[in-house]
UniProtKB/TrEMBL annotation:
Pfam families: Glyco_hydro_28
Official protein name in the record: Probable rhamnogalacturonase A
GO-annotated cellular components: extracellular region
Biological process terms in GO annotation: carbohydrate metabolic process; cell wall organization
Organism: Serendipita indica (strain DSM 11827) (Root endophyte fungus)
Signal peptide (from-to): none
Compartments where found: Secreted
Source species, domain of life: Eukaryota
GO molecular function, one term: rhamnogalacturonan alpha-L-rhamnopyranosyl-(1->4)-alpha-D-galactopyranosyluronide lyase activity
């Protein structure tokens, strides 16, 4: 069995009540200013304009950040290429200030087993260009946050990776915000995939043709809000398979296992392919062993919008597994319609309230029930925002890098945290800027080489580089 719950293309979601599902604080446990030991990559073999800034990042981390608690790994403003894979492991009480912009010519970055960690750009212009159109779905993700605790990633721009953009892999107490993510108009371009416990994702814009922000298993106590899926595949759970374990999720996933205590509220959709959509018989997935993922206590509240063709793809579909019927599915103030002014709603083995096809009583299996509704009385023309795209980005050409990160990700609602570029500079930020001015190097200047760089920059397997072309790079390949 398989579950896919998603909203597609132009969609905004907003949730009131921060902390409703969170079980404790998120983000770093100490201030940015306390991480005042500056580890500038230009002092560890790096140059602005470098053809491979990876070894300098790794050297600055190994020889400076890990040697002194309270350090900031600093990539000054400027353009860099990156070919060498970088894994930054087991750091505590540190930050990665990424004011520069990296173009991928090989691999990217893993942050692993970090605690009290922050990755950001002070100018709100740092990030990655992946040129994924050169090698689709065969290369690395931009950024993985793996089993980290008390961390944040913000004020970054991620553009066109070969595969996914940001992976949050387990861990706890993380926060992602003030981000722009731009992928191609194809599948295999996930924006943010997240697992773990007590994470908070908010104020993010995603353009792609796959998942926008997606909760995967295992996941508990995750809050997602103020998400602008701008020509995107939509926010989702899944795909989910064997031993699914998800609970206490709020958006402001057969196999077997459970998804329970989920709130999805304050959604606006406009011209989407899918609407409010649960389907445990997703056609693109091969059936798995087991009765199906048990869905229960899922509430949809305050939804308004339309799909492109409500006869072809219902604005509301609740298709549950016959072997694991869904109890307590509640729709309140849900006004989903179709741009064709005609629609159907579908339910199967779903029990609850709020839509004509759903059943009440003791959960049991039943065949698909299809109803033909009239336009909901509460439906209104979906709100638009400046910056809404009318089409996605091509899969076969370079995707433009956005010049700014928005200050609002939901109509009339300001982002919860001010962009770093709009904040008054702290003493630490001023000191870093002064240091960058005094030590700045370009690729035409002599470079300082560290003898302790651990990247395997001279032992590349030519077959890997050939196979993955621009995706191969130097160092360990790990998709």
């Amino acid at each position: 069995m398989f579950l896919y719950l998603t909203l597609f293309f132009t969609l905004y979601d907003f949730i009131l009540g921060v902390g409703a599902l969170l079980i404790g604080p998120v983000g770093p446990t100490t201030s940015r200013a306390s991480k005042s030991n500056i580890c500038n990559v230009l002092d560890y073999g790096g140059t602005i304009g470098s053809k491979d800034i990876g070894p300098a990042i790794l050297s600055a981390y190994n020889n400076c950040v890990t040697k002194s608690s309270g350090s900031t790994l600093y990539l000054p403003a400027g353009n860099y290429d990156m070919q060498t894979w970088v894994t930054l492991n087991r750091g505590s009480h540190w930050a990665f200030r990424m004011d520069g912009f990296i173009t991928r010519t090989g691999h990217m970055i893993i942050i692993q087993n970090a605690d009290d960690f922050e990755m950001y750009s002070a100018n709100s212009k740092g990030g990655f260009q992946g040129n994924g159109y050169l090698c689709r779905n065969t290369g690395p993700r931009f950024l993985r946050i793996v089993k980290c605790s008390n961390w944040s990633v913000h004020d970054l721009v991620l553009v066109d990776p070969p595969a996914f953009h940001l992976i949050v892999q387990e861990g706890s107490n993380g926060e992602v915000y003030n981000m722009v993510i731009r992928g191609a108009d194809i599948g295999g371009s996930d924006g943010i995939d997240i697992t773990g416990t007590n994470h908070y994702v908010h104020d993010v814009m995603v353009t792609n043709r796959d998942e926008c922000v997606t909760v995967k298993s295992p996941a508990h106590n995750i809050l997602v809000e103020n998400i602008w899926c701008n020509q995107s595949g939509g926010s989702a759970f899944g795909s989910l398979g064997i031993n699914t374990n998800i609970s206490n999720i709020e958006y402001n996933n057969g196999g077997n296992g459970t998804v329970s205590n989920v709130l999805l509220q304050n959604f606006i959709s406009r011209g989407t392919a899918y609407g409010l959509y649960i389907n445990q018989y997703w056609a693109s997935m091969k059936p798995l062993e087991g009765p199906g993922v048990k869905l229960s206590n899922i509430a949809f509240t305050n939804w308004n919008g339309d799909v492109v063709n409500g006869d072809n793809r219902p604005p509301i579909a609740l298709i549950c597994a016959d072997g694991a019927p869904c109890p307590n599915i509640a729709l309140t103030d849900v006004n989903m319609w179709s741009q064709t002014n005609k629609a159907i709603y579908k339910c199967e083995s779903a029990f609850g309230t709020g839509v004509g096809c759903i059943k009440s009583g003791t959960p049991s299996s039943y065949a698909v029930v299809t109803v033909t509704p009239t336009r909901p009385s509460g439906y209104s023309t979906p709100t638009t925002m400046p910056g809404d795209l009318t089409v996605g980005f091509p899969a076969t050409a370079s995707i433009p890098v956005p010049t700014t990160i928005p200050t609002s990700f939901f109509p009339v609602i300001a982002a919860k945290s001010k962009l770093m570029s709009l904040q008054t500079s702290s003493t630490m930020v001023q000191a870093v800027t002064a240091q960058a001015t005094s030590t700045a190097k370009t690729s035409t200047s002599p470079t300082k080489t560290s003898t302790s760089v651990k990247a395997t920059s001279t032992t590349v397997n030519p077959g890997i580089v050939t196979r993955y072309a621009q995706c191969g790079g130097i160092g360990k390949y790990n998709p």
